[in-house]
């Protein structure tokens, strides 16, 4: 297969390589991050019970036959209230506008709510083929699923409709195969064994941020972010990683550290284990917590997250 990379077909009847971008869009908690991890077959995007956890575009890369599919997991689209919200929503629509195909993911349990209606109203302005993906189908009776699919296709003409369970993987191979067939002929953009174009520093920060959400989902507001300040490969093959967790209040700092440092130790232990799995090397992780009251208004923090700073 490697000989065919970038060949775009050729003599001897070699199969043609295909490549393209697919944007996954939807309301918060529709299951986009879970789906992209299933499609790629590895952890490339943060998954959390909390909504609005994906802050910037995360690209996951999957191979389907001779097609390379670059998935863009966009932030959930919602009614923005804060500056960070506006940056996330702008990023989501930008990712959709740049893609060859757009997959609208709808939580079948919730059906068509105000957020889905708002997305449907704007989708016709976005180029590329549009497909409908109904998620969490294992939680809804078949007649209701068919009714929901008919309603959504009545509001917008989708090229195809798929019914899946991203959590269980049901229907995901069929979806991936269909997306692979939609990609245009052309050379692959990434090496065959690469699963994401997110730098390891960013991925490591996302993993730690996910562990904060898992541990403190009811106690800590969204106003926290993680930055990888140092990544040093050591002579023995291990990596020393230093990360700073930024919060907006002194009280938030105490919550993250926990009594006797127990909370931050648990967060660090869980994050280190997952970062080791992602990097396939021994990791020494050091976490620091700092208060930065107005980080959500700091352009530099937005650049760190891969977002444009909204005026």
UniProtKB/TrEMBL annotation:
Protein name, entry field: GTPase Era
Region (G5): 164-166
Membrane topology (UniProt): Peripheral membrane protein
Organism per entry: Methylocella tundrae
Chief location bin: cytoplasm
Location of the region described as G2 in the Swiss-Prot/TrEMBL record: 52-56
The protein's assembly and partners: Monomer.
Family that this chain belongs to: Belongs to the TRAFAC class TrmE-Era-EngA-EngB-Septin-like GTPase superfamily. Era GTPase family.
Functional summary from the UniProt entry: An essential GTPase that binds both GDP and GTP, with rapid nucleotide exchange. Plays a role in 16S rRNA processing and 30S ribosomal subunit biogenesis and possibly also in cell cycle regulation and energy metabolism.
């Amino acid at each position: 297969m490697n000989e065919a990379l970038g060949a775009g077909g050729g003599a001897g009847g070699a199969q043609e390589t295909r490549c393209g971008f697919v944007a996954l869009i939807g309301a918060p908690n529709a299951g986009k991050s879970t789906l992209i991890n299933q499609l790629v077959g590895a952890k490339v995007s943060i998954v959390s019970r909390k909504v609005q956890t994906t802050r910037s575009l995360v690209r996951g890369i999957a191979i389907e036959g001779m097609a390379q599919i670059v998935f863009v997991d966009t932030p959930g689209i919602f009614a923005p209230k804060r500056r960070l919200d506006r940056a996330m929503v702008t990023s989501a629509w930008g990712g959709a506008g740049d893609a060859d195909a757009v997959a609208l993911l709808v939580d079948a349990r919730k059906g068509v709510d105000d957020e889905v209606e708002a997305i449907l109203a704007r989708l016709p302005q976005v180029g590329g083929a549009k497909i409908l993906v109904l998620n969490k189908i294992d939680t809804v009776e078949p007649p209701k699923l068919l009714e929901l699919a008919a309603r959504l296709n009545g509001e917008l003409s989708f090229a195809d409709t798929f019914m899946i369970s991203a959590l269980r993987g049901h229907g995901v191979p069929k979806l991936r195969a269909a997306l692979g067939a939609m990609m245009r002929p052309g050379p692959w953009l990434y090496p065959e064994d690469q699963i994401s174009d997110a730098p390891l520093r960013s991925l490591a920060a996302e993993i730690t941020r996910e562990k904060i959400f898992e541990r403190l989902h009811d106690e800590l507001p969204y106003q926290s972010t993680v930055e990888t300040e140092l990544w040093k490969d050591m002579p023995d093959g291990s990596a020393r990683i230093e990360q700073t967790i930024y919060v907006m209040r002194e009280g938030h700092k105490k919550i993250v550290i926990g009594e006797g440092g127990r909370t931050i130790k648990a967060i660090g232990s869980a994050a280190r284990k997952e970062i080791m799995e992602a990097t396939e090397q021994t990791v020494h992780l050091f976490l620091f917590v700092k208060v930065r009251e107005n980080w959500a208004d700091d352009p530099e923090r937005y650049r760190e997250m891969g977002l444009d700073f909204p005026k």
